[in-house]
Design brief:
Layout: E1 3-13, E2 21-26, E3 48-51, H1 52-60, H2 63-66, E4 70-74, H3 82-94, E5 99-103, H4 109-118, E6 121-125, H5 131-138, H6 143-157, E7 160-167, H7 175-185, E8 191-198, H8 204-210, H9 224-238
Parallel strand pairs: 2-4, 4-5, 5-6, 6-7, 7-8
Antiparallel strand pairs: 1-2, 1-3
Helix pairs in contact: 1-3, 3-4, 4-6, 7-9
């Protein structure tokens, strides 16, 4: 039975996939997103150890709450711990629990294809609209190409995808960026939903606690009005 490192767990999640969900945030991520609100999840040696069986016991104990929702494996980057995550996804399928995998293109398709195929739904974080912008935001020059490979694979296999994209004032929350995002996503008929998530400052204290220099220290959170305006512009450009 595989053992994994888990950053945290949420037994009544409503933001990471359809319905009420048990959300498992895995430890370890090769990206270094400048707006990350959980930089404590980066290290592969952090978190706490759990066997797949132990995790499933905790998940099943919440079955009454999540039966019409499911289980979401997030991060960090869950594809970093492929053996463990694959076993959990398989066990969830045996228990007739819907599964979602939240990934970002942090690792190439060949390293996470089994996970993509096993999950019922992919929550794909599009960090930037091209290699340059995604690399600048994540520190990973391959993140955009990897994400597009995952999208292409999901379209080919008919896998449902929800897109997530963080809106940052003057960086990603611009008409030019949103137009490029809409043009990219319009190519894929398997995308069921696009979530534009406003950048927030709630994780700033973690950067300070870890002694990390916060590159977003001078940025402010998006207002509800700015978010609504961005969503309206994107929806007009996306036109699906």
């Amino acid at each position: 039975m595989a053992t994994g490192r888990i950053h945290s767990e949420e037994s009544f999640g409503t933001l990471d996939g359809p319905g009420v969900r048990y959300v498992v945030f895995m430890q370890g991520c090769p990206n270094r997103c400048i707006y990350c609100h959980n930089p404590d999840s980066w290290s592969n040696s952090g978190g706490r150890l759990s066997s797949a069986g132990e995790l499933m016991q905790r998940i099943i104990s919440c079955r009454n709450f999540i039966q019409k929702g499911g289980v979401t494996i997030s991060g960090g980057e869950p594809a970093v711990q492929q053996e463990f995550v694959l076993e959990v996804l398989q066990k969830c399928r045996q228990e007739n629990l819907h599964t979602a995998l939240d990934t970002s293109g942090a690792v190439p398709l060949e390293s996470c294809c089994e996970l993509i195929d096993e999950a019922d739904l992919i929550l794909l974080d599009i960090k930037g609209v091209d290699a340059e912008s995604a690399g600048r935001l994540t520190g990973n020059p391959h993140c955009f190409a990897n994400a597009v490979q995952i999208l292409d694979h999901c379209r080919k296999t008919g896998k449902a995808v929800w897109i997530r994209h963080v809106l940052i004032k003057d960086l990603t929350c611009t008409e030019e960026n949103l137009k490029k995002l809409a043009e990219l996503l319009a190519q894929y008929d398997n995308i069921e939903k696009v979530e534009l998530l406003p950048f927030h400052t709630m994780g700033f204290f973690k950067w300070n606690e870890l002694g990390f220099t916060n590159p977003m220290a001078d940025f402010s959170a998006l207002t509800s009005g700015e978010k609504k305006q961005a969503e309206e512009f994107f929806n007009r450009a996306y036109n699906r």
